[in-house]
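Quick one:
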Amino acid sequence: MYKRVFGIVLDSIGVGAAPDAEKYGDAGSDTLGHIGEFFNGDWRLPNLQKLGLGNIRQNNPIQGIEPVNVPMGYYGKMIEVSAGKDSLDGHWEMMGLPMLHEFSTYPNGFPQALLDKIAEFSGRPIIAKGPYSGTEVIKDFGEQSVREGALIIYTSADPVMQIAAHEAVVPLEELYKICEYARTLVNAAPDIIGRIIARPFIGTNSNDYTRTANRHDFALAPTGETDLVKLQNAGLKVIGIGKINDIFSGQGIDEGYHNESNMDGMDHVDKVLGEDFTGFAFTNLVDFDTLYGHRRDPEGMGKELMRFDRRLGVVMNEMRPDDLLIITADHGNDPGFTGSDHTREQVPVLAYSPSMKQGRSLGTRATFADFGATVLKNFGLQSENGTSFLNELA
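Output:
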């Protein structure tokens, strides 16, 4: 048994279109492959490469991240069975709760009756938009929002409602209360939304408005018992780093850390690495998604991966022989693809411990739930929805 298991989700880092990608309009998507093509192979992820990231793609190598002869870790990829490609779907499935029904999406904008209720509760006018880029919407409507004291409410192709407001006009506490109220309106058919996202911004005008790290996700509460709850009920410590606490509505989390950035998140990972506990530390690094994927910025995404890779080297050096590290992703967000939304992709899974002698392939896992099943089995618990790969690690 590993005493401590560390899971790190590289938000949006897919490894190629899922078998059902065409259903989602994502045939041909390939987050890592297109980043490699952008750099024409002139980029390096040496620590991820040593763990076997390149070995996942033997027949279609990622430029610059080719297979290695003797990988240090175990490597493979996972296929999502949930009916969506949102962070909530991906994370819930990882923790044994696949979402087999569709959430509500709003390609034509939100129902007016829903917006009217939010306006009445908040006492503020609403600038309502359908699917919109988060950075573009504050550029295009931020000044009007400030002038009128209004909320900007918009969505994407995913089942989310995003509420943006200037921090100097709508204080954070007020914005969060409005989001909490909106959360109560969309928990049952016909409107079931995965996440209400508070999107505060700052700046003096449309040319310099920027979103802040005070984003907060108000997620639909898990509809069943997750692997995190099972671990907690068994007396194991569960730590959530980044938006993990938001995604699971705090359920099954003993200790949580809010990330200001990916590197801040890695600082929290380093802190937890220095603690003595028995259990699971689950981390999400969201900047790949919010800062680069949605903005279709392959250069920024690639450079951020290189920054992560350097920090990964520190983590590997600090790990104990009875630690296990699992690295994966929750969906794709291909910066070389059309549009600005998530892409339905397979995700990598890498497993490493200093006690391992040599890694090998974990193959293609039929569900993200294999991740949680592996964590559970390590601590003598059972999964209903995944197949553990713990016995394949040596």
